[in-house]
């Protein structure tokens, strides 16, 4: 990935984190430099069922977005990298505009009901760093239980994992437990697509905070060595 895209994606995440933190009344520091960390904070997905539809919000730390963008060729595969404005697009903007991103998300986040696939569509990619990627799946019948498969980023590194949450229920999806039965709460499911949008901000802040903690721990031995 060209250095300028990586730097701009880092800067965009830092701005988004500070803005979200100010809105929540909390101080948020900038994210660490980009770099893969499948052993750091897990990816996060929030599910909300409403009738026969399941809304999904998928969030990741900044460097995981970079990894995904590099993997699908988002930063080098677009001939027009200015968006028609004459100014270089940020890494986040290039990723959102990639034709490969929707198909990647829908092929790595799969929902089935009674053995029949729920048709998915990507509904939000324009503000990945604050809202995450959002998808809506239409199932044959009103949803109470589905078979959920989550393999996001495990094709980049099998150690990636995703924490999926719905209502008070959460579960960890890994390369070895990629498919699990998922039951939604009774009485109206677990909310609506609007709930997913609200939850996304909290998820991305958690990812940023976790990434910072991981980076500090990883950097500590190096700092001690320099001090010698």
Automatic annotation (TrEMBL):
The chain crosses the membrane at residues 196-215. The keyword Transmembrane helix applies. Residues 1-22 form the signal peptide. Keywords: Membrane, Signal, Transmembrane, Transmembrane helix. It comes from the Bacteria. InterPro entries: TAT_signal. This is Uncharacterized protein. It comes from Jiangella anatolica.
């Amino acid at each position: 990935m060209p250095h300028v895209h990586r730097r701009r994606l880092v800067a965009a995440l830092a701005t988004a984190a500070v803005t979200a933190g100010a809105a929540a009344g909390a101080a948020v520091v900038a994210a660490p430099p980009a770099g893969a960390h499948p052993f750091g904070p897990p990816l996060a997905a929030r599910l909300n069922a409403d009738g026969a539809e399941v809304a999904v919000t998928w969030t990741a730390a900044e460097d995981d977005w970079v990894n995904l963008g590099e993997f699908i060729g988002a930063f080098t595969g677009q001939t027009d990298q200015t968006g028609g404005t004459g100014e270089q697009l940020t890494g986040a903007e290039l990723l959102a505009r990639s034709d490969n991103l929707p198909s990647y998300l829908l092929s790595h986040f799969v929902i089935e009901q009674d053995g029949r696939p729920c048709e998915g569509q990507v509904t939000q990619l324009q503000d990945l760093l604050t809202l995450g990627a959002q998808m809506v799946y239409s199932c044959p019948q009103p949803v109470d239980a589905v078979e959920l498969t989550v393999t996001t980023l495990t094709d980049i590194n099998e150690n990636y994992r995703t924490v999926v949450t719905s209502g008070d229920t959460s579960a960890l999806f890994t390369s070895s437990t990629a498919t699990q039965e998922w039951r939604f709460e009774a009485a109206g499911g677990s909310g609506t697509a609007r709930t997913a949008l609200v939850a996304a901000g909290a998820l991305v802040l958690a990812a940023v905070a976790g990434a910072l903690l991981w980076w500090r721990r990883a950097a500590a031995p190096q700092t001690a060595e320099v001090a010698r």
